[in-house]
């Protein structure tokens, strides 16, 4: 009897322990469903002030400012390769395209003459082709007829502020050669002209021009126009033909 009572007591105790364990486990499961999880992580590479992928602090993206251009309806002046404005030069005379031509800064008289396309009868060698031009210059390209003895130069051979065409200037006047604004077509300087410039004179070809240069080299300089008579091939009649175009 006593043993039977002990078995009943043990069974009851085990049942109570089992029931308590079930209750505790159920309570923990219930609490686990009510506790919220950790907040979701920000997506990698998100643009903003947070930390992007890679672990470095990012900065907000800023759009570049829009370029500032000229005001509507305005036009920027034409400029050369270095940002300087182009030169406006008026070319007249024996050219196929007279008028105002736009030249790059640093251009020479030769560039202006080439832009205006000299005619076959033009004598661009009468000009100082190496002289730099300035904005507003007027260049007159003479022809053989313009430089003939007794010929009257057209008014446009001079600058805008000058009167009727004058005689060729004296040697060294103004330091500029023929056809530049403010001067009349000039004479060829026997003591400085090269072969090509001497060939612009009437009746002077390459052979005579080379003889003149060679004679000048031997005597150092011409002291008078009449010294040309010492050059083989130049006589008195040719000297008189050349005299209106020569200076020292």
TrEMBL record:
Gene Ontology CC, one term: type II protein secretion system complex
Spans annotated as Disordered: 38-82, 145-179
GO biological process: DNA repair; protein secretion by the type II secretion system
A molecular function GO annotation: DNA binding
Span of domain Helix-hairpin-helix DNA-binding motif class: 196-215, 226-245
Record carries keyword Zinc: no
Organism for this UniProt entry: Caldinitratiruptor microaerophilus
Highest taxon above the source species: Bacteria
Gly residues: compositionally biased ranges: 47-57
Transmembrane annotation, as ranges: 6-27
Pfam family, one: HHH_3
Key words, A-Z: Membrane, Transmembrane, Transmembrane helix
Biased composition (Low complexity): 157-171
Record protein name field: Competence protein ComEA
SUPFAM superfamilies, alphabetized: RuvA domain 2-like (SSF47781)
């Amino acid at each position: 009897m006593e043993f039977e009572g002990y078995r009943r007591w043990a069974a009851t105790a085990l049942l109570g322990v089992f029931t308590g364990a079930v209750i505790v486990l159920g309570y923990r499961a219930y609490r686990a469903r009510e506790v919220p999880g950790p907040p979701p992580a920000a997506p990698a590479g998100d643009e903003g002030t947070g930390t992007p992928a890679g672990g470095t602090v990012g900065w907000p993206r800023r759009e570049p400012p829009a370029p500032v251009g000229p005001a509507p309806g305005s036009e920027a002046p034409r400029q050369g390769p270095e940002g300087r404005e182009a030169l406006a030069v008026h070319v007249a005379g024996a050219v196929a395209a007279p008028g105002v031509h736009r030249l790059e800064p640093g251009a020479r008289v030769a560039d202006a003459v080439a832009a205006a396309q000299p005619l076959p009868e033009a004598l661009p060698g009468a000009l100082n082709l190496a002289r730099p031009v300035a904005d507003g210059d007027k260049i007159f390209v003479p022809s053989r007829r313009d430089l003939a003895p007794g010929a009257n130069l057209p008014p446009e051979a001079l600058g805008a502020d000058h009167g009727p065409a004058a005689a060729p200037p004296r040697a060294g006047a103004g330091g500029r050669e023929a056809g530049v604004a403010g001067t009349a077509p000039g004479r060829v300087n026997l003591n400085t002209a090269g072969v090509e410039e001497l060939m612009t004179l009437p009746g002077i070809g390459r052979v005579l021009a080379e003889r003149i240069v060679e004679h000048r080299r031997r005597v150092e300089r011409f002291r008078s126009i009449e010294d040309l008579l010492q050059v083989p091939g130049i006589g008195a009649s040719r000297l008189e033909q050349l005299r209106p175009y020569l200076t020292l």
